[in-house]
């Protein structure tokens, strides 16, 4: 089977979880909605092209190998005027001048992962809208600037997409040979997440017994309305020795 494997690394990343009130939590690693959004940006697919986003999210099975880094919780204050009927402020200047008398402060707590690195593997389905070579070319020459969950979180290393042949996701990660390595601190802990079947990651019964099933709300329903449904994943933690 063919896989496309690439790397996501930056000093800060934020992989959106369910947002409740002023709290904006982050998953330890990239969600499928975030990864496919990044791939869509690289291909030049705009947010309003809903059908293309749906095809992209359905067309590939994903696994990640994550060194989760450290959790950073940031306290934000955002000053903005409240809404006035159908009137819309077009610029930040409009907000500060035209809406001066209506300014209020929004408080929020936002989570980030610092010094985290993730390897992503994609396996195409029979109806995948793009070949793996086309995705690799787009990641090497992105149309829109890719980022790690938030625009304030740029990539700090090349993604180095590679098409590899392997029997499963574990084999695909083993076959991935980036030129430059060891960005994240090597504490030995790697978190693996994958969708599909238990055996899609590896054939080791011992690892199957250590694998958990979890639910992540990152199955795309609508990119324009930011709606996502639950998705079942497998989760396996491994510790490299030596």
Please provide a written account of the structure.
The protein folds into two domains: 2-69 and 113-240, Alpha-Beta Plaits, CATH 3.30.70; 76-107, no CATH class. It has helices at 32-43, 50-58, 92-97, 132-140, 169-175, 205-209, and strands spanning 2-13, 16-20, 23-26, 60-67, 70-81, 103-124, 162-165, 189-194, 212-222, 227-239. The relative contact order is 0.24. It is of the alpha+beta class and 242 residues long. 20% of the residues lie in helices and 40% in strands. The model has no long low-confidence stretch (mean pLDDT 90). The radius of gyration is 19 Å and the shape is globular. Strands 1, 2, 3, 4, 5, 6, 7, 8, 9 and 10 form a ten-stranded mixed β-sheet that branches. The two termini are 31 Å apart. Helix 1 packs across helix 2. One of its GO terms (biological process) is maintenance of CRISPR repeat elements. One of its GO terms (molecular function) is RNA binding. Keywords: Antiviral defense.
């Amino acid at each position: 089977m063919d896989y496309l494997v690439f790397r996501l690394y930056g000093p800060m990343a934020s992989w959106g979880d369910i947002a409740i009130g002023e709290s904006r939590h982050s998953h330890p690693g990239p969600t499928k909605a975030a990864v496919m959004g990044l791939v869509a940006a690289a291909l030049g697919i705009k947010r309003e092209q809903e059908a293309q986003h749906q095809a992209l999210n359905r067309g590939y099975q994903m696994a990640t190998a994550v060194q989760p880094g450290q959790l950073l919780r940031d306290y934000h204050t955002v000053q903005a005027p409240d809404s006035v009927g159908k009137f819309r402020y077009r610029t930040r200047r409009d907000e500060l001048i035209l809406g001066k008398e209506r300014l209020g402060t929004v408080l929020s707590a936002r989570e980030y992962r610092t010094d985290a690195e993730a390897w992503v593997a994609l396996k195409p389905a029979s109806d995948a809208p793009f070949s793996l070579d086309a995705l690799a070319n787009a990641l090497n020459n992105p149309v829109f600037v890719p980022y790690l969950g938030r625009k304030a979180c740029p990539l700090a290393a090349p993604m180095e997409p590679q098409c590899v042949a392997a029997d499963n996701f574990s084999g695909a990660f083993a076959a991935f040979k980036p030129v430059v390595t060891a960005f994240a601190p090597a504490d030995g802990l790697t978190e693996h997440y994958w969708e599909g079947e238990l055996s899609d990651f590896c054939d080791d019964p011992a690892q199957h017994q250590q694998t958990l099933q979890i639910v992540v709300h990152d199955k795309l329903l609508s990119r324009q309305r930011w709606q996502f449904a639950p998705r079942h994943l497998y989760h396996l933690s491994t510790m490299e020795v030596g």
